[in-house]
Write a structure and sequence with these properties.
Blueprint lengths: L16 E2 L2 E6 L7 H14 L3 E6 L8 E6 L2 E6 L3 H4 L9 E4 L6 E3 L6 H7 L8 E2 L9 H15 L1 H20 L5 H5 L28 H22 L5 H12 L2 H8 L4 H18 L4 H17 L4 H17 L4 H33 L5 H4 L9 H17 L9 H23 L5 H18 L20 H12 L6 H52 L8 E5 L6 H6 L19 H9 L8 H8 L2 H4 L10 E4 L2 E5 L3
Parallel strand pairs: 2-3, 9-11
Antiparallel strand pairs: 1-8, 4-5, 6-7, 10-11
Length: about 650
């Protein structure tokens, strides 16, 4: 009987062995005494009226077959690689003992024995299954490592693609300490937590230290996103390798991640939140209470890290509904699950909000103005906010708002991409006869998709929304890849569209990689400019005979950028996080102390207002001209603008 027949040794879903057929593992029969041990094993097994297959186990080896002779008959030996099945096998299995009576037979590595067969109570009627592992099972740590190794091999394409694209897009940010206004202020912190509703950051200290380390944090973030891409490939699902590669590139090179790396101190937390959101979408689409509880826990914790990830999860669930409807599943079942997804999202938001209020009460704090000023949720305002979300979704691709599609060339590519996706959608809808309920639900899901992706507009005022908040827009690419991956090329039109869509996605990834590197160049130049400004300023202050203990520094006015920033790097003004550090930033005192190494107290805002109102300040020229720095009272004043 061949492997995989009715007496199949392994069942993939449970990795169990039927007792009807016994697999003995022996060393290579070419070794001294190997054949005798194999024959002894066969004798024991035949005495039990069991069908016998002899397997020679090699850790991580390739499948092979070898013939041996027993009782004048040819029997085939089949290798069962424990490494591929998830069991430890660091050395070939060896027969430890075999008695002639057939009452005892044991193989190292804990595989099935005749004694275990007798105790299993097997009978043909109920076909009970006997566990493959016995008392000599490998350690849990070894099994976890082998499981991780197997998963890494299964997902090697999206993993490797995400790492490669991640380093192409963000490698410069990993190898250099880039600074913006918040990064300069949060070198040894993760920013606001409970007071901003981000109570999940309180648990991050045990995972990621409060030190903004670009090399470690950058690599960890990319690895977390690479794992998230593997999860997304199962949620959608994406079966073809080209779709998995493009999904990895579109996720890790997306401008929202570029902006996130401008705030390196919170990058790992956001990477973990993205992974938890992907896991939540995967768990909630599976059957079982435990899976649903795991999904709830993952999403609530992800929202506790950064609230905007609700849109990412909502968009993924709508894609799942669209896929099921396109495949022709029963409309009532899909509708029931869709309503369950809505309930899941609402329950997650409710639990998140309850924990946020509890955290504020336990820490005796109040929500910061930065968080409350941007809130726009109101039941009466939902229709207007929903309309705003649709308009914002359209403007992302037509006007390049929030710098997600920053260049004209990229907007043309996105227009062609949406055209291809529309053609594939129409072809898929017409390819199968659908009932009215299925078609109505499909139209409703497509209409709700932009709202799901931009659902953050239902809760936050547009003025508080920026590039990083809209990471959920990456769901639009995943929807297109799902449509292309599940559409067979059975006509010329389909083949043409399926050939064009990957090319367009690859070009968009390339554009985003260039945008990321231009953004990091901007951050680097800003840092160099600010460093040079304060270095020369400190030299002038130290050379002044009026510099005494207790002197203060006041930098008053707005910094005027050199013309080349607006001419060549103007898009960075709308890509949040990459505008860089300027000499007039609110965190200039921290920058001067931590990056320049000179600690001098700065004048308070009230003192600056008082100085700016004096006639002496009004007569000063603007920096960098002679006389733009002057001591007024006990404060060294630098005038940046009138």
């Amino acid at each position: 009987m061949r492997p995989g027949g009715s007496g199949r040794l392994f069942r993939r879903e449970r990795e169990m062995v039927r007792v009807r057929k016994i697999c003995f593992l022996a060393n290579d029969i070419s070794l001294p005494g190997g054949l005798d041990r194999v024959n002894a094993a066969l004798a024991c097994a035949l005495a039990e009226n069991c069908e016998v297959w002899i397997g020679s186990l090699i850790s991580g080896g390739k499948s092979w077959q070898r013939e041996i002779l027993f009782s004048g008959k040819v029997r085939k030996t089949v290798e069962f690689c424990m490494y591929r099945k998830g069991y430890a096998a660091f050395e070939p299995a060896r027969i430890e003992h075999c008695s002639a009576e057939g009452d005892f037979f044991r193989v190292s590595q804990g595989f099935l024995s005749i004694d275990a067969v007798r105790k299993s109570g097997y009978n043909d009627e109920n076909e009970r299954m006997c566990p493959l592992m016995t008392e000599n099972s490998p350690l849990l740590f070894q099994r976890v490592l082998l499981w991780l190794g197997r998963k890494a091999r299964e997902n090697r394409v999206p993993l490797c693609a995400a790492l490669i694209f991640g380093f192409l897009a963000h490698g410069f940010a990993f190898a250099n300490k880039l600074v913006n206004h918040d990064e300069a202020n949060a070198l040894f912190s993760k920013g606001g937590s409970v007071v901003l509703g981000r109570w999940g950051l309180c648990f991050m200290d045990n995972l990621f230290p409060n030190v903004s380390m670009p090399w470690i944090y950058g690599i960890v973030t990319i690895c977390l996103l690479a794992v998230a891409v593997c999860v997304l490939a199962r949620v959608l699902p994406l079966k073809s390798r080209w779709a998995q590669v493009l999904a990895a590139g579109l996720v890790v090179a997306f401008p929202s991640l570029t902006g996130t790396f401008g705030y390196m101190f919170m990058s790992t937390s956001h990477g973990l939140a993205f992974l938890l959101t992907a896991l939540a979408a995967w768990f909630v689409t599976r059957r079982g209470t435990w899976f649903h509880l795991a999904a709830l826990g993952c999403l609530v914790f992800a929202l506790g890290i950064y609230q905007a990830f609700i849109g990412l999860c909502a968009g993924l669930l709508v894609i799942v509904v669209i896929r099921r409807l396109l495949e022709g599943e029963d409309g009532k079942a899909v509708l029931r699950d869709g309503l369950g997804y809505i309930l899941f999202l609402a329950l997650s938001l409710g639990l998140y909000y309850g924990i946020a209020r509890l955290a504020l009460a336990l820490t005796h704090q109040e929500m910061a103005n930065y968080a409350t000023d941007g809130m726009a949720f109101s039941p009466l305002a939902l229709p207007a906010n929903a309309l705003l979300a649709y308009r914002a979704f359209l403007s992302l691709f037509t006007d390049g708002t929030y710098c997600l599609v920053p260049t004209e060339f990229s907007r043309v590519l996105h227009g062609l991409l949406w055209l291809c996706a529309g053609i594939l959608l129409i072809v898929r809808v017409r390819a199968k006869k659908r009932n009215t309920l299925n078609l109505v639900l499909l139209i409703a899901a497509l209409v709700l998709f932009p709202l799901a992706v931009c659902c953050i507009f239902l809760f936050i005022a547009p003025a508080s929304i920026h590039t990083i908040v809209l990471y959920s827009v990456v769901d639009a690419y995943l929807l297109m890849l799902m449509l292309a991956d599940s559409c067979p090329p059975v006509s010329r039109l389909r083949r043409a569209v399926l050939n064009a869509l990957p090319v367009l996605c690859a070009l968009i990834v390339t554009v985003n990689i260039y945008i990321a590197n231009e953004s990091y160049l901007t951050l680097h130049l800003r840092y160099e400019n600010a460093y040079a400004f304060y270095t020369s300023l400190i030299a002038d202050i130290k050379a002044s005979p009026e510099f005494t203990q207790g002197s203060k520094l006041a930098v008053i006015g707005s910094w005027q950028d050199p013309a080349f920033y607006e001419e060549h790097l103007g898009f960075t003004n709308t890509l949040t996080g990459v505008t860089g550090f300027k000499p007039d930033s609110y965190s200039k005192a921290r920058f001067l102390e931590q990056y320049v190494g000179f600690a001098i107290p700065f004048a308070t805002q009230a003192e600056e207002v008082e100085i700016a109102a004096t006639q002496e300040f009004a007569e000063m020229p603007v920096y960098p001209y002679y006389g733009s720095m002057k001591k007024i009272g006990d404060t060294f004043v630098v005038k940046l603008s009138d």
